[in-house]
Amino acid sequence: MDAQKLEAINIKNFFMERNQNIKLAVILSCHSESIGSIFLNCGIQHVICIKRLHTIDDDACLIFTNALYTALFDGVNPTVCGAYHHAIDILKNSNKNNKFKEEAEKFLLLKKKGTEPEHSTEC
Q: What is the pLDDT of residue 1?
């Protein structure tokens, strides 16, 4: 594939052709909210991205993803919403100079309505 820019319709067609039931996409690049919204509109149930007007620190992304996937796959908090909030809390408390506390505010969870189990109250 060449370096052409993907359009929203191309992304939607990609998912529709494959009839995927993707529950989570994690897009941790700077300013990724727009692409995250496209993924959400293509049927992905949860999308974690970075707010539209923000850049993100690579170390913050590493801490966040480690905590997110640990929570999801080790059963610490097996819902996407619960794991997201767990990862945000870990990131906020990762250092003493508040750098990561500010970075944690840049993460965004987009989700389709009705995607979490009824017993989940975390989102």
A: 40
SS (H, E, C) 48-116: EEECCCCCCCHHHHHHHHHHHHHHHHCCCCCCHHHHHHHHHHHHHCCCCCCHHHHHHCCEEEEECCCCC
Residue 84: is its pLDDT beyond 90? Answer: yes
Output phi, psi for 121, to 5 deg. Answer: -115, 15
How big is the chain, counted in residues?
Answer: 123
pLDDT in tens, 106-123: 999 999 876 555 444 457
Is the CB of residue 122 less than 8 Å from the CB of residue 79? yes
The pair phi, psi for residue 43, each rounded to 5°, is 105, 0
Integer distance in angstroms from the first to the last C-alpha of the chain? 37
What are the extents of the domains in the chain? 8-109
Residue with tokens 């496209």: 38
Question: 3-state DSSP call for residue 25?
Answer: strand
Q: What pLDDT is stored for residue 116 in this prediction?
A: 57
